[in-house]
Design a protein that fits this description.
This protein is of the alpha/beta class. It folds into 2 domains: 148 residues, Rossmann fold (3-Layer(aba) Sandwich), CATH 3.40.50.1220; 82 residues, SIR2/SIRT2 'Small Domain', CATH 3.30.1600.10. The chain contains 10 helices and 9 strands. Helix 6 packs parallel to helix 10 and helix 8 runs parallel beside helix 9. The longest helix has 16 residues. The chain is elongated, with a radius of gyration of 19 Å. 38% of the residues are buried. The chain binds adenosine-5-diphosphoribose. Adenosine-5-diphosphoribose binds next to helix 2 and helix 10.
Length: 245
């Protein structure tokens, strides 16, 4: 992949950049993208039937077990060159914000600092009643653990279908979008709101919109630059092409 000169010179002069990532960035770490077929036991379920408040109310144990399986799936997984290239990008761009829809925690693990986890994080849980957060919990019995403050059922601290996004990261994302010069959409199908509308908002604020994705998406026709390919391959090449290291 040869990045066009106007693109590399743009990036070399960019002071404020916002990157938005989706499941595609974690695919080369061995994690299925969200719309990949579910694996094994979970094949009989659609994510939408497990990741919702209704599903949790209906069968908290099933939902808890699905997230326990997803946490296990992430345990042995490491960031890939795409995650690390984004850490390098953060060091090159004076004002860098990474907004992620991923809940696998791999950007944090790789070292990204200014990170907005729009859909939460698998490694965190919170009480479904009083909202208290926890990063560790007791559930030797395997049953859904309960809050130590109010005894409510603990749930994954991730955004479920039909739920609103956590206010703080969303407000910070909208603020970053308001003045960014470049918006870089990576590894996301751009099908889920409000992440999908962030690119359009950035563009209407005057940002150049760039997409790196394995395939074209609904955003592609509206982008200023589209680079088709794997983020784990293209992002390190982008750093090399712009900053030569
Ligand atoms: N490099 C770049 N792009 C890739 C790669 C890769 N190695 N592998 C897959 N892709 C692309 C796919 O072509 C697809 O367009 O990444 C995109 C992943 O899209 P989805 O599976 O829809 O995941 P995502 O966009 O993150 O979903 C957004 O939807 O279901 C909700 O909350 C869930 O956070 C998720 C949100």
């Amino acid at each position: 992949m040869n990045f066009p000169a106007d693109f590399t010179s743009l990036l070399s002069r960019t002071g404020k950049l916002v990157a938005l990532t989706g499941a595609g960035v974690s695919q080369e770490s061995g994690l299925r993208t969200f719309r990949d077929a579910q694996a094994g036991l979970w094949q009989q379920y659609k994510p939408e039937d497990l990741a919702s408040p209704e599903a949790f109310a209906r069968d908290p144990q099933l939902v808890w077990d699905w997230y326990a399986w997803r946490r296990e799936a992430v345990k042995g997984v490491r960031p890939n060159p795409g995650h690390y290239a984004l850490v390098e990008l953060e060091a090159k761009i004076p004002a860098f914000t990474l907004i992620t829809q991923n809940v696998d925690g791999l950007h944090r693990f790789a070292g990204t600092r200014n990170l907005l986890e729009l859909h939460g994080n698998l490694q965190r849980v919170r009480c479904s009643d009083c909202g208290t957060f926890a990063e560790t919990w007791e559930n030797d019995s395997g049953s859904v653990p309960r809050c130590m403050h109010c005894n409510g059922l603990l749930r994954p601290d991730v955004v479920w279908f039909g739920e609103s996004l956590p206010r703080d990261p969303l407000e910070k994302a909208v603020e970053a979008i308001r003045t960014c010069q470049v918006f870089l959409s990576i590894g996301t199908s751009g099908l889920v709101q409000p992440a999908a509308s962030l690119a359009h908002a950035a563009q209407s604020n005057g940002a150049v919109v760039v997409e790196i994705n394995a395939e074209a998406t609904p955003l592609t026709p509206k982008t200023d630059f589209f680079f088709q390919g794997k983020s784990g391959e293209l992002l390190p090449k982008l750093i090399q092409a712009v900053w030569g290291n």
